[in-house]
Design brief:
Structural class: alpha/beta
Shape: globular
Number of helices: 17
Distance between the termini: 69 Å
Helix content: 40-55%
Order of helices and strands: HHHHHHHHHHEHEEHEHEHEHEEHEHEE
């Protein structure tokens, strides 16, 4: 018997919230095994993840004690449909949530679910509190305001909710952004040119897009693209991408090099390097060489490079709209990241030629992982100078939150 879309969504949410699984991977795996309404399932899962704090506020007003986690997730699903899904009738949102208690053999809680959701339906007021309104934990919100000021934080909070924009990077070995836009429109895909890129405005199933299969573009966020371009890689140069997978920046760099020179792409895991190899083959890129390498350990066999991209592991606070569960992690859980980031940056710098360029980047908004790491590196490496540091805040129609710094090794 096929599971209902709501039951599939509930099972995914249980894995995310109870087992701390990644939302994108867990959802993708679930969608492969279902014949249900995949768009509806995705909307439920991401919607509940994004709005969890808001939903919990609405639920907790009508609870005297917190029920089992699976029942709490049923309440979140029901509340999300009531408040944020206009096309779902209130009766369906309530009744189908009650049915979920039967599906998971928790009939005892059916009356509770029914009563709480009816009360939420009659009292939909959400307070004008930033944490509740935008579903951002107070500790993360306070950290951002302390580091970047309230004036800079408030404008980007709305962009943390809802689906992020999708950008196609034209494969400049074959075509430019205008030509790619024409190709996509001819395939019935709603899109528009935005800077060097093409922003996709409609749904996109890549395995069914001919121009993707033919290697005419790859998908990469605009902030990530700008970072890769800032490296300034040129034809014939030797370039290192020390934390490369899944390869979006490497593809952009190789295309900017006009597929001439050498680009070494490193990562810790073979399966992630395979993603780069598959993508490079599809795009017709021949200068990328992948190999397993721990970016924090020096390898004398790696050649000196003209340019190095050091995109380090980070807390990911700039890509919350893509992986909404990230915002719920405890800040203490990331306190050791700056040490790892500095270690990778310091080690990577050893491969750079005199006069070479190194770009350090993260997809997070946290000065401890960004400016402080760069400043600590410069303090310990007098042979390097800072060209610039740049923080990009997420926007509704623009790129993700991102940071990159351009460093020059003095001749």
């Amino acid at each position: 018997m096929n599971k209902s879309p709501r039951l599939v969504a509930l099972e995914v949410l249980n894995k995310i919230f109870i087992n701390n699984s990644y939302s994108n991977i867990t959802l993708d795996n679930a969608l492969k095994d279902t014949e249900g309404d995949k768009a509806f399932i995705s909307a439920l899962v991401y919607g509940v993840c994004e709005r969890r704090i808001t939903l919990d506020y609405l639920i907790n007003k009508h609870l005297t004690s917190k029920p089992k986690p699976k029942i709490y997730n049923i309440l979140r699903l029901g509340a999300y449909q009531l408040i944020y899904m206009d096309k779902v009738p209130s009766s369906a949102a309530v009744n189908e949530s009650v049915n979920l208690t039967h599906d998971i053999k928790q009939d005892y809680y059916s009356k509770l679910v029914n009563a709480v959701l009816h009360k939420i339906d009659n009292d939909r007021e959400i307070p004008d509190d930033l944490s509740v309104l935008y579903s951002v934990p107070e500790n993360l919100l306070n950290m951002w305001i302390k580091q970047y000021t309230r004036e800079k934080v408030l404008p980007f909070l709305p962009s943390l909710l809802g689906r992020p924009p999708v950008f196609a990077v034209p494969n400049t070995l074959y075509l430019d952004n205008d030509e790619l836009s024409y190709e996509l429109i001819s395939e019935g895909i709603d899109c528009e040119v935005q800077g060097d890129l093409v922003r996709i405005n409609s749904g996109l199933e890549l395995d069914k897009v001919k121009s993707f299969s033919n290697g005419l573009f790859h998908i990469e966020d605009s902030s990530s693209y700008d970072c890769a371009v800032s490296l300034g890689a040129k034809e014939g140069e030797t370039v290192l991408d020390v934390c490369s997978a899944p390869g979006g920046k490497a593809f952009t760099i190789a295309e900017r090099m006009n597929n001439k020179g050498k680009l070494y792409s490193f990562d810790l895991y073979k399966n992630r390097l395979n993603l780069i190899n598959i993508g490079a083959k599809r795009l017709g890129i021949e200068i990328i060489e992948t190999s397993i390498q721990d970016a924090g350990i020096y390898n004398s066999e790696i050649p000196l490079a003209d340019r190095i991209l050091c995109d380090v592991p980070c807390s990911g606070f700039g890509i919350i709209r893509r992986k909404p569960e990230i915002k719920y992690k405890e800040l203490d859980s990331i306190k050791d990241l700056p040490n790892l980031q500095l270690e990778i940056l310091s080690n990577s710098s050893r491969y750079l030629k005199n006069g070479g360029v190194l770009v350090y980047s993260t997809c997070t908004l946290n000065k401890k992982e960004n400016e402080k790491v760069v400043n600590a590196f410069l303090e310990n490496n007098k042979g390097f100078s800072l060209d610039y540091m740049k923080t990009v805040f997420p926007s509704i129609e623009g790129g993700d939150g991102f940071f990159h710094a351009k460093l020059i090794k003095n001749k």
